[in-house]
Design a protein that fits this description.
Oligomer: heterodimer
Strand content of chain A: under 5%
Strand content of chain B: under 5%
Helix content of chain A: over 70%
CATH superfamily of the largest domain in chain A: NADH-ubiquinone/plastoquinone oxidoreductase chain 6, subunit NuoJ
Structural class of chain B: mainly alpha
Number of domains of chain A: 2
CATH class of the largest domain in chain A: Mainly Alpha
Number of helices of chain B: 3
Number of domains of chain B: 1
Largest sheet of chain B: none
Largest interface: A-B, 69 and 62 residues
Largest sheet of chain A: none
Helix content of chain B: over 70%
Radius of gyration of chain A: 21 Å
């Protein structure tokens, strides 16, 4: 049972991965990527990594993809991406469009399968997790404590970098409004 | 699950190949960033497969999960900075196409 589920979810993850590449609009790519991440989360769960499956859904699907979604909606790229890539005949066929639609559909099916399958391994073999939360915490604050501190510095640097990037745009804010209709 | 760990590695290789393909053929910078996320996920899967391979029934190997956590952290930082750069690029060029960046072409 779990083996069949693994191979089905692997195929779904690969198909939705192709959907990310072949989808015409960035929104479709996001949805495909979401399906791929959910399939991978269930694969982690099946392989015994329960904490990583939760982190995958919380951090990847919950935080990073929402960040992408924010940017796409903020820049209003839902249609622009399609118009700008019109010249690329490779992606401008009905086959590619059908493939994208198929990928999104399969991604949704993957989501349903993921939500149905999510609780089965934990019930079937309790306490069989390869990554116990306590053991991971001991590793993280013991053997990998230096990397942990470096990670906090990385997060701080990222925050400062993003603020600096956003602030420099505000200083020269009148230029884009002057020649804004160039798009 | 009695799937051999090699099959996890095959899946990771496939996902990484798809990510590289998208990185090379797409011109929308946001989709390129998404393909990078896909590649980082493939790396995560590789770490977890290696950890699963080297775990025994008594002692689980925790290096893989810890490294996967760090990879997720780096992915989050990379997405934040990359998207901030994309917003700056859009304000400058009114476009997110990689082809619109040709100032430094010789």
């Amino acid at each position: 049972m779990a083996e069949i589920l693994f191979y089905v979810l692997s195929a779904l993850a690969l198909l939705t991965g192709f959907g990310v590449v072949l989808a015409k609009s960035p929104m479709m790519s996001i949805l495909s990527l979401l399906g791929s991440f959910f399939c991978l989360a269930v694969i982690y769960l099946l392989a015994g990594f329960q904490f990583l499956a939760a982190a995958q859904i919380l951090v990847y699907a919950g935080a990073i993809l929402v960040l992408f979604l924010f940017v796409i909606m903020l820049l209003n790229l839902g249609d622009m991406g399609v118009v700008a890539e019109r010249s690329n005949s490779f992606l401008d066929s009905t086959a590619a469009r059908l493939g994208a639609a198929l990928a999104v559909g399969l991604g949704v099916i993957g989501l349903v399968a993921a939500s149905k399958a999510a609780f089965q391994p934990a019930q079937a073999e309790p306490g069989k997790a390869l990554d116990g939360l306590e053991a991971i915490a001991l590793q993280l604050f013991g053997r990998y404590s230096l990397a942990f501190e470096a990670a906090s510095i990385l997060l701080l640097a990222t925050m400062v970098a993003v603020i600096a990037l956003a602030k420099r745009q505000r200083k020269s804010g009148q230029n884009p409004t002057q020649n804004g209709g160039r798009a | 699950m009695n799937v051999p760990s090699e099959h996890l590695l095959y899946l990771a290789a496939g996902l990484f190949a798809i990510g590289v393909l998208g990185f090379l053929i797409r011109r929308n910078v946001i989709v390129v960033l998404m393909c990078i996320e896909l590649m980082l996920n493939a790396a995560n899967l590789t770490f977890l497969a290696a950890s699963r391979q080297h775990s025994t029934a008594q002692a689980a190997n925790l290096d893989g999960p810890v490294f996967a956590i760090f990879v997720i952290l780096v992915a989050a930082c990379e997405a934040a900075v990359g998207l901030a750069l994309i917003i700056a690029l859009f304000r400058l060029k009114q476009s997110v196409e990689a082809d619109s960046l040709s100032e430094m072409k010789g």
